[in-house]
Design goal:
Length: 552
């Protein structure tokens, strides 16, 4: 396979590239299928690198491509240092890194340290070795409670529904905060610590530029006896570092030791923490310079299309980051949440997850509203200081596929909640590259999740070159951002209208976001707008980057 490098600028050593980067998340099984088996793979990704270079991203973050029985979409790993044979080989991975680097794109890989697959050799060994064996020490095995030990050791609940404990055949129980096929590791065990530090080195040696750390807040647990109750898992965490499972103070010591590993490299490797704790000052601690440097701030992703919600999360994030010296992150969509175009088009009081469980019936989704608001929010996000994480397909304006038939669903959430929640497959449907053909150009044959007919209209080929398309808006915005976003300076500017947000960046450019149903005046010379219109007024539910008029 050959990749064209004409006009590309290769990556050059830079310690701080990630501080203002646009990082594009690839969910490998759904991006591009190189061998026609219906599953996206590394050769597919490699063939689409020129597309990503033309889009203008600085880096790609690859969700897990490691060997996995797929109990949780690849986040159940049997070997953290290899490639799933369905997705390619280590050699394919090396080609992706080399080609990406030549095209000026850096590589971030996912590290999943909280758990392994139940097919991981360590867990297989632990089951075989039996109670009391050293092999069990790498995981969290405990006796059950109740007169015959048939009750779980504690009341901890899995994120995917049901108990977080599973009984092994010999009567002991093991802890799994996610699916039962994802046993939690014991982070008090030195071998577990060494294994992950070596895994970081393994990928850094292969040329990766950074790491996204899965459920980074869960590694340290209070496993002292008696195990503490976790009645508040679904409610509010204590937010003081004393919860038995989440965001414990000790977890930071793990990341301080990882920082030493990152700093063994020149330039040092970057990292970003995924934490889903309720956002508080503690959330940002993971981004301290002697730890990971970045943490996903999901508060923007959780905010609804509403000026006050956006304003307050942006204000808090910038304030908190400036206090700890970490680099800001902004995210609107990911492989774990319904796509933002869909979220913003539903009435504010819609129960999103109930709506999805009902296959998107009941509340009509207006595509034009989705398009307007998603574009405006994206332009706003890309104007903020720090780095922005995009999720594959959002550049096409893709909506959530809300009506996937139950028999096609793969997310364990569906089964573990007895069908009450539909899970995350609706944002993982393989991408449409062409308006027709098998699997809309995803591959030479079908796709592992069914694509709806309307995907054709959203295809890359249908949007490329169309100046009014979502794809061209992203391309223009990323190109302009490269020239404009040169520092982290930010200040709110009073717009005089509660439905209009306005903020200024250094070097005289600003962003205006109109949440109202009225046109508003653009107080300067427009550079780029979410509607494509560069006139003196801004349409309803739109955003514009502009150079402000000199004060009179
Ligand atoms: C993270 C991942 C999610 C996965 C979970 C368990 O939240 O983003 O997809 O299911 O961790 O690994």
């Amino acid at each position: 396979m050959s990749t064209s490098f004409a006009s590309a600028t290769p990556v050059t050593p830079d310690r701080d590239w990630w501080r203002r980067a646009v990082i594009y998340q690839i969910y490998p099984r759904s991006f591009a299928d190189g061998d026609g088996d219906g599953i996206g793979d590394l050769p597919g990704i490699r063939s689409r690198l020129p597309y990503l270079a033309a889009l203008g991203v600085d880096a790609i973050w690859l969700s897990p491509f490691y060997p996995s029985p797929l109990a949780d979409g690849g986040y159940d790993i049997t070997d953290h240092r290899d490639v799933d044979p369905r997705l390619g080989t280590l050699e394919d991975f090396d080609h992706v890194v080399a080609d990406a680097h030549r095209l000026g794109i850096r590589i971030v890989v996912d590290i999943v340290p909280n758990h392994t697959s139940d097919q991981h050799p360590w867990f297989v060994e632990a089951l075989e070795a039996g109670p009391g064996s050293p092999a069990r020490e790498r995981y969290i095995f405990r006796d059950g409670t109740g007169p015959d030990g048939s009750e779980p050791p504690a009341d901890w609940r899995s994120h995917f529904g049901g108990s977080a404990w599973q009984r092994a055949g010999d009567g002991e129980w093991y802890c799994h905060l996610f699916a039962r096929e994802q046993p939690d590791l014991n982070w008090d065990h030195p071998e577990v610590r060494a294994y992950f530090e070596d895994t970081l080195r393994f990928w850094a040696d292969r040329g990766v530029d950074g790491f996204r750390i899965d459920v980074a807040h869960s590694l340290a647990k209070d496993l002292s006896h008696p195990l503490r109750s976790q009645p508040n898992l679904d409610a509010v965490l204590p937010l003081d570092g004393t919860d038995p499972l989440y965001d414990r103070e000790e977890v930071h010591e793990i990341y301080r030791s990882w920082r030493k590993v990152f700093d063994e490299y020149d330039p040092p490797r970057m990292a970003v923490a995924e934490t889903w704790t309720p956002t508080s000052s503690r959330t940002y601690l993971y981004a301290r310079p002697d730890e990971l440097g970045q943490v996903f701030d999901f508060s923007l992703l959780k905010a609804q299309w509403h000026p006050e919600q956006f304003r307050s999360v942006i204000t808090r994030s910038i304030r908190e980051h400036s206090q700890i010296g970490g680099a800001m992150t902004w995210v609107l969509s990911s492989h774990d949440v319904p796509r933002h175009a869909t979220r913003y088009a539903l009435p504010l009081d819609t129960d999103l997850y109930a709506w999805l469980a009902g296959d998107g019936r009941g509340v009509e989704l207006d595509e034009a509203t989705a398009r307007r608001r998603a574009r405006a929010a994206t332009l706003m996000m890309l104007a903020l200081p720090g780095s922005a994480y995009l999720y594959q397909g959002e550049e096409l304006g893709l909506l959530e596929v809300a009506d996937l038939p139950a028999e096609s669903l793969r997310d364990p959430v569906f089964e573990r909640t007895g069908g009450e929640l539909k899970g995350r497959d609706g944002c993982r449907v393989p991408l449409p590259w062409t308006s027709g053909g098998p699997s809309f150009g995803f591959g030479a044959d079908g796709s592992w999740l069914p694509q709806p007919d309307w995907f054709g209209a959203y295809a890359v080929s249908a949007q490329s070159g169309d100046r009014g398309s979502s794809l061209e808006l992203y391309r223009s915005a990323l190109a302009l951002r490269r020239t404009l976003a040169t520092d982290d300076d930010f200040a709110w500017v009073e717009s005089g209208d509660p439905e209009v947000l306005r903020f200024a960046r250094r070097d005289g450019w600003e962003c205006l976001v109109n949440f109202s149903a009225r046109e508003v005046d653009v107080p300067g010379r427009p550079l780029l707008s979410s509607t494509g219109d560069l006139g003196p007024t801004l349409a309803p539910e739109a955003a514009v980057w502009f150079v402000p008029s000199a004060p009179v």
